[in-house]
Design a protein that fits this description.
heterodimer; A: alpha+beta; Alpha-Beta Plaits; five-stranded mixed beta sheet; about 40% helix; flat; B: mainly beta; OB fold (Dihydrolipoamide Acetyltransferase, E2P); 2 helices; globular; disordered C terminus
Chain lengths: ~675, ~170
């Protein structure tokens, strides 16, 4: 066994492969005869097996070997993908995931699943005529006399510690006594140009035809992706030249090595199988390193602001020029660093597809799960923290939202339900909706339950949208029977908490009989925002610039007021106003040029009376300590250009304060 | 004051920082002390109550500063050239928190004789229950040894004052 650290590296490597595996299996569920996807699944399994064995996960490797064998049968056209195979394969996937996590599941499971996989692929062997092969190839190829293997190792093979001689020895071992090895010296440069660490030689190896192709490929297991490799069968039939087609159902790896393209490398196969968009080289970096860069960039942005402040004072042209350059560079650096942290939502979508598959199995409800906008990018931290709430909400939509097939038929709906997850950018926010076309929420039942739980009083006049939100309160459940699905520990209140912790909001709209929509609004990132700096009394505060809608001179009729709250008429609409100096209890006298900053969130607005508008700045958000973090009115603090600390106002909280004022005013008016 | 806390405290007494506020001598074991600073620009936090003195910027890190004087019923003396901030590292509900505490004067790093340790009298002192670990003597005067963990945990568990929207 290797040490924990090395195994951790393997786990990280395997993560992406596992995601691809699951994704592939779920795609196959929909399009069972897509051979490219089959090849992709096979490739993922093969690599997990190979690296797993290398890193000492022997149980995992041997189980995956059998798993792979099942898909080898599909790949070679001996079997077809059936719903049963996908179900067994997904359970097998779970076992692999558990083994990867270091769990010790019952060893009997391995055998049971291996048997199930074998059963799912053996019994279903189609008649040759029905074989889903793309090309019209003779079903039984001529017997293979020998293998003509040609390979060139990657140029840096020796540098990374590879040993070509050992590799040739291994091939001789596989091939036995009749193995013939010949060097390919056509790419030798002149001696002057040779680099001692680079391999210029290729090899041709003739191996007996009795050997399985996989046994040959296994020799190159860890290098196949980087090297040039072609394995061609040489057939016994004297009339058949080398160009005789390869075995039925041409697996992609072989297609790539077809005689027509002798230079094609084996590397092309997985690429094609994944049908990925333009391949950009990927670099895997530990998240804390990116965080460190982010911190440094934050400091840089602050230092840059200080420099700009000093340069403005000195009024030195040359200095101002340099400051402008630095400003531009710092902003560019900030943007590219932020981009490093952005992850598309698709990175967690595999999980949800799987979840919907499982839910369909356990609830017996038939429904389509549609994802829209999975390319939408969000800060990695936000994406990670979204997974659990989304799992819960999707589960909830299926479990509580969708009706069973009979009920749907009775109410004249199509038998298949619909659950849709959609994501899109809206300004500096990402809007995620979870939509179902189920029975909708029962407002009366929720109201009744809320009154029972003391969250509402009998006579309270709360709008429908607020009543629906009650389901997110701790311990709130209107379901008469708690099902196995809903009792898995993540409560609706956890959803609310998680979203609020991300500075997001949840809204619920629901029409009886038509379905429910959960709308999540989340900030793109948690680290840096564009801020508007305002002065209140002697202190300065920052507001997120994106929530600022308007800045007005304070109307005369409001100028004399001293109460903390007021209202202003704006475009025929009454907008509540907060006098920040009074709200903050600052005794400094009001400036003569007070302004109103209108900020908005969740389609509601509030006006803030401030003494001064100072300007915009790059606001690096620092979290408040536990000593202050429960003051909801501030969402954090930031360091200004002169080194002073300024508090960041929480717009969502200010708006809700404004709404309270509005409610109260309505109360007194009625 | 239990015997156990005494036993924990005794080895920590050979290095304490001796300081002063509201005319009282106080001491804190230096194992919680990170540094002593002159008072930097302090940004007040509105609505946070008088225990919160504000926020400071220490080399790019924003730290909260606490003012213990209202807690101990001491008058607030305006900051002068002797005012210091003790940066201490404590734990709040098992999480580390770095926080500043205002001191009107810092005397020295000193050693306290464990034999002078006394429990805090239950009545007749200015110290609210649970704010001190013990009393002791240093330089022929009484010194109070504050219970940092409990002071901050109690303050943080209190509901913050609601924003006075009228």
């Amino acid at each position: 066994m290797m040490d924990a650290e090395t195994q951790e590296i393997f786990r990280q490597e395997a993560e992406a492969l596992m995601e691809a595996l699951q994704e592939g299996l779920l795609v196959l569920k929909e399009t069972p005869d897509d051979l490219e996807v089959v090849a992709g699944v096979f490739r993922a399994l093969h690599t997990i097996k190979g690296t797993g064995a290398m890193f000492g996960f022997s149980r995992l490797a041997s189980f995956v070997h059998n798993f792979e064998a099942a898909f080898e049968a599909v790949r070679s056209g001996k079997s077809v993908v059936t719903p049963e195979l996908i179900n067994v394969a997904l359970t097998a996937y779970d076992l692999i995931a558990e083994l990867l996590e270091g769990g010790e599941p019952d060893p009997a499971k391995d055998e049971e699943l291996t048997a199930a996989l074998a059963a799912a692929t053996s019994g279903e062997a189609p008649a040759p005529a029905a074989a889903p092969t793309a090309s019209e190839v003779p079903a039984a190829p001529a017997e293979i006399k020998e293998w003509d293997l040609q390979f060139r190792l990657p140029p840096d093979f020796m540098e990374i510690g590879g040993n070509p001689i050992a590799m040739l020895d291994e091939l001789r071992e596989v091939g036995g006594e009749t193995t013939i090895v010949r060097p390919l010296t056509d790419r030798l440069p002149s001696i002057a140009q040779m680099d001692t660490k680079v391999i210029y030689t290729g090899w041709q190896v003739i191996l007996p035809g009795a050997i399985k192709e996989n046994a040959i490929r296994d020799v190159f297991m860890f290098h196949e992706d980087q090297m040039e490799l072609s394995i061609e069968p040489v057939h016994a039939a004297p009339a058949a030249p080398v160009a005789e087609p390869e075995p039925a159902a041409a697996p992609l790896a072989e297609a790539a090595a077809a005689p027509a393209e002798p230079a094609a490398t084996a590397k092309d196969a997985p690429k094609a199988a994944k049908a990925a968009p333009a391949a950009v080289a990927q670099l895997r970096v530990a998240a804390d390193r990116v965080d460190l860069i982010m911190d440094r960039v934050g400091e840089l942005v602050i230092a840059e602001a200080r420099l700009a402040a000093i340069a403005n004072q000195l009024e030195n042209e040359a200095l101002l020029g340099v400051v402008e350059d630095i400003q531009r560079l710092a902003l560019g650096l900030r943007d590219s660093t932020m981009a490093l942290r952005m992850t598309p939502l698709s990175s967690i979508m595999g999980r949800f597809r799987r979840l919907s598959h499982d839910l369909a199995e356990t609830t017996g409800k038939t429904f389509d799960f549609i994802v829209e906008g999975e390319e939408t990018e969000l800060d990695k931290t936000v994406v990670e923290k979204l997974t659990d709430p989304l799992v819960h909400m999707i589960r909830n939509s299926v479990d509580h939202g969708l009706e069973g097939p009979e009920d749907r038929a009775a109410s004249g709906k199509p038998e298949r339900g619909l659950v849709k997850l959609s994501a899109r950018h809206a300004g500096a926010e990402v809007v995620i909706e979870i939509i179902d076309d189920g029975r909708g929420m029962n407002e009366e039942a929720i109201r009744k339950r809320a009154i029972e739980r003391g969250l509402l009083t009998e006579d309270s006049d709360v709008p429908r949208s607020e009543v629906l939100k009650m389901v997110l309160e701790p311990g709130f459940s209107t379901a008469a029977a708690v099902t196995a699905l809903s009792g898995r520990g993540v409560g609706a209140d956890v959803v609310k908490q998680a979203i609020e912790a991300l500075n997001g909001t949840i809204e619920i709209t629901s029409e009886p009989g038509e379905g429910t929509v959960f709308t999540l609004r989340l900030p793109l990132t948690l680290a840096i925002i564009e801020g508007l700096l305002i002065g209140v009394g002697k202190e300065r505060y920052a507001l997120p610039l994106l929530s600022v809608e308007q800045i007005l001179e304070l109307p005369e009729e409001l100028a004399g007021g001293t109460s903390a709250t007021d209202v202003i008429e704006l475009n025929n609409e009454l907008v509540p106003v907060l006098r920040l100096r009074q709200v903050f209890n600052r005794d400094a006298s009001a400036s003569t040029h007070q302004k109103i900053v209108i900020v908005g969130a969740n389609d509601t607005r509030v006006g803030l009376v401030v003494d001064e508008i100072i300007g915009t700045n790059q606001t690096v958000i620092k979290q408040l300590s536990p000593l202050h973090s429960r003051l909801k009115i501030f969402s954090g603090a930031t360091i200004l250009g002169d080194g002073c600390v300024a508090l960041i106002l929480d717009v969502i909280h200010l708006v809700s304060l404004g709404q309270e004022i509005e409610q109260r005013l309505k109360g007194t008016a009625a | 004051m239990t015997k156990k806390t005494y036993a924990d405290l005794i080895p920590r007494l050979n290095s304490v920082v001796a300081f002063e506020m509201g005319g009282e001598q106080m001491a804190l074991p230096t194992d919680v002390l990170r540094e002593v600073l002159e008072l930097p620009a302090l940004t007040p936090v509105p609505c946070a109550g008088d225990f919160s003195a504000g926020l400071i910027n220490i080399r790019g890190v924003v730290l909260p500063v606490a003012d213990w004087r209202p807690l101990f019923g001491m008058p607030l003396k305006a900051a002068d050239r002797e005012t210091r901030i003790l940066i201490i590292e404590t734990s709040v509900n098992e999480q580390t928190m770095t926080v500043g505490v205002i001191a009107e004067k810092v005397h020295a790093i000193a050693e306290i004789d464990p034999d002078t340790l006394r429990p805090v009298p239950a009545v007749g002192t200015r110290w609210p229950k649970g704010t001190l670990l013990a009393m002791a003597r240093w330089n022929d005067a009484f010194v109070a040894i504050p219970d940092v963990v409990s002071i901050f945990e109690n303050q943080i568990s209190q509901e913050p004052q609601l924003v006075g929207a009228d």
